[in-house]
Write a structure and sequence with these properties.
Layout: H1 22-31, H2 38-48, H3 62-67, E1 78-84, E2 90-96, E3 102-110, E4 113-117, E5 121-123, H4 132-136, E6 138-141, H5 144-157, E7 166-169, H6 179-190, E8 202-206, H7 210-217, E9 224-228, H8 234-240, H9 249-263, E10 267-273, H10 281-292, E11 296-302, H11 316-326, E12 333-335
Helix pairs in contact: 1-2, 5-6, 7-9, 10-11
Length: 357
């Protein structure tokens, strides 16, 4: 993707291109006395051809190319740092936002393809006790433009080698706590004249914000839903995921079940295995019972260490035994292969941590 030349820098009042749906971009063009249909052409250039230099958009009138800076800001956030794990399959990107704050996102390549892990907030207010991002507290929500930009920056870095990439909102922040911006970004990324990311390739993760889950079910998009469960009792979940005190399991699980039935998608139950906390045979039995009552699949996640936290990952043998006990008692079970732990890019580690420390 080309960078924006200084000759086409935007007006200070111009909104970010990447936060505009095609309809809103058309309205923006019309308000400036320009043809609204040019929005589709601009989406093609930016999202299909990965071209951000207005002067190179050959099928647009030269006059429009020269004044595109007053229509929208085509600049992406600055990439402050990119770290690669030893295999080269995982990259962590630190992006500098317009106010100087930084947010991290991750690309992961595996046998099943390429996945982009997106952030929705700088920090997080929900303070899950085993998560580095929660230790930051919430600094601010990301805009839709800042969410879309993560996809473009990672795709450009990887030269758009895999057009069938998946998107998971599992980075920094709670996506359903920034609902409007997340859904606007989803619609932009889903647009058939843009990146055309299918709903079944997009997963939204939540620690269990019940009103947001109910709202998401009514969107008319068969998005994947990943519920960060992490415990099968309220007592343990209160400790690990404090929002459980607001929406305990008796309120949360029926909403997850309703989401799966309404969308036709199995809900993914994310379950971080922590030694001595939630990895006993009794925990496995309770988790299997929950999974059987839902249209669901279980994704077991080895705990990823965070400096200063007291938790430990179970042994590989203990995690495998937990997984083997669950299946076939639960409908579907996977044990996640950790990627990016060496660069503090694995689940629960995004917080600007320095892998050299």
């Amino acid at each position: 993707m080309s960078t924006l030349p200084s000759s086409a820098l935007p007006d200070a009042s111009a909104p970010s291109f990447f936060g505009l749906s095609r309809a809103r971009l058309g309205e923006r063009l019309a308000s400036l006395g320009l043809p609204a249909y040019r929005a589709t052409q601009l989406f093609t250039w930016a999202y299909r051809k990965h071209q951000l230099d207005p002067l190179a958009m050959a099928n647009l009138p030269l006059a429009l190319r020269r004044e595109l800076g007053r229509v929208a800001d085509l600049r992406l956030p600055r990439t402050a740092r990119i770290l690669a794990d030893p295999s080269g399959d995982t990259h962590k990107f630190a992006l500098e936002l317009s106010d100087g704050r930084q947010v991290e996102c991750v690309s992961m390549r595996a046998e099943r393809g390429l996945t982009f892990c997106l952030s929705s907030q700088v920090g997080c207010a929900l303070r899950c006790s085993f998560c580095a991002t929660g230790l930051m507290g919430l600094q601010r929500n990301l805009t839709a433009a800042e969410i879309v930009a993560q996809v473009l920056i990672m795709g450009d870095f990887l030269r758009w080698a895999d057009n069938g990439f998946n998107l998971v909102f599992m980075g920094m922040g709670e996506p359903l706590a920034n609902y409007d911006a997340v859904m606007e970004a989803v619609r932009i990324l889903h647009d058939e004249r843009g990146l055309n990311v299918g709903a079944r390739r997009i997963t939204v993760s939540t620690v269990g914000l019940v009103p947001g889950m109910e709202r998401l079910a009514g969107e008319g998009l068969a998005l994947g839903l990943a519920l960060s469960l992490h415990a099968a009792t309220d007592e343990v979940r209160d400790q690990l995921v404090p929002v459980n005190r607001r929406w305990p399991l008796r309120e949360l699980l029926p909403v997850a079940q309703a989401y799966g039935l309404r969308t036709g998608r199995r809900v993914t139950l994310e379950y971080t295995l922590i030694e001595g906390i939630n990895d006993s045979p009794a925990d496995a039995e309770r988790l299997a019972a929950i999974a059987r009552d839902l249209p669901s699949k279980i994704n077991l996640i080895p705990y990823n260490p965070v400096p200063g936290l007291p938790y430990r990952r179970p042994s590989a043998e203990a995690m495998q035994a937990f997984a083997e006990w669950l299946y076939p008692r639960a409908p579907a079970v996977t044990l996640r292969h950790t990627q990016g732990g060496e660069i503090w890019a694995a689940c629960g580690q995004l917080a600007g941590l320095d892998p050299q420390t």
